[in-house]
Amino acid sequence: MSDKSEVRAQLMKKRDAIPPEVRRAKDRLIRERLLAVDEIRNAKMLFFFASFRSEVDTLEPMKSLLAEGKRVVLPKVDRENHLLLLYEIKGLEELVPGYMGIPEPSVISEERAIAMNDVDAVVIPGAGFDMAGNRIGYGGGYYDRLLASPEREIPIIAPAYEEQIVGAIPSEPHDIKISMIVTDRRVIRCTG
Q1: pTM for this one?
Q2: Which CATH architecture has domain 4-189?
Q3: Other C-beta atoms within 10 Å of 102: how many?
Q4: pLDDT digit string (tens) for 124-147?
Q5: How far apart are CA 184 and CA 33, in angstroms?
Q6: Could you tell me if 104 and 75 are in contact, meaning their C-beta atoms sit under 8 angstroms apart?
Q7: Which residues touch 169 (CB under 8 Å, ≥6 apart)?
Q8: How far apart are CA 98 and CA 22, in angstroms?
């Protein structure tokens, strides 16, 4: 399994095959673990992704964090420049379908724009992960570019179904490593 697109396709197929009732139970377990890790509990401002299709649900954790008074930031795709722009949301009702139908912030203003270095923790999507912190995304490279040069170390956390964890993910030097994977069974502190 060395070809990235082949690995990605296999992992997505596996994730898509999780029955809805099993997915809901797994989402609840992941949410409980995710909200309990120190990196999330101690963060004032969190960068999240809005779950889409068969991804682990991030809407419920975001709702909980907003209710606690934490600041939540989401990406908006800038297709022209192939970048993710970060905007704070005040509630889930501010999300609208954006690039490829993925929910994005609808309130785009200078007051809501956030710099990557102001974020305390990043919650990142992916098709699959390994214990060394390697991640296979969706092939756009958006997150690798965004996370390539923060001025300080920011924990990068991936919520994932246990089915998304594999022995080894093919990686390249520009690929960003994640620090932690939170699954329906465990919290994995990555060794890479």
Answers
A1: 0.95
A2: 3-Layer(aba) Sandwich (3.40)
A3: 20
A4: 999 999 999 999 999 888 999 999
A5: 8
A6: yes
A7: 7, 128, 129, 130, 134, 135, 136
A8: 28
